[in-house]
Design a protein that fits this description.
The protein has one domain: Winged helix-like DNA-binding domain superfamily/Winged helix DNA-binding domain (Arc Repressor Mutant, subunit A, Orthogonal Bundle). The chain is built from four helices and three strands. Strands 1-3-2 form a three-stranded antiparallel sheet. Strand 2 and strand 3 form a beta hairpin. Helix 1 crosses helix 4.
Length: 93
Amino acid sequence: MPINFRSKLQVALLAHYFSKPNAEYYLRELARTLSFNAAYLSRTLSALSNFGLFISTKRDREKYFRLNRNHPLYNELKMITKYVVAKKDTIRK
C-alpha cells in the first residue's frame, strides 16, 4: 500500500509520529489520541508496517507501533508530511 497523503488518518498518523520519532504507542492509545476508529487505524498501521515504515512489537497483550527510522524513504516522507500539514493549515486559515 503506498502512502496516501489524501487520507486524513495517514496524514494525522504520520504527523503525530514524525513530531515524536522515538515514540511508541499501542493501538487504543493512538485511537484515543488521534480520534479515529481503532479498526480503521489497525488496518492502516498493518499496511504501513507491511510497507516497512512502521515496526510493531507485542508486549503483554498490546501491540506497540513505532516508526522505522531506517526506512529508505523516511526523510522524504517526513518532509512531505510537514509540507502537507502546513498546506492544510494554510488552507484552513
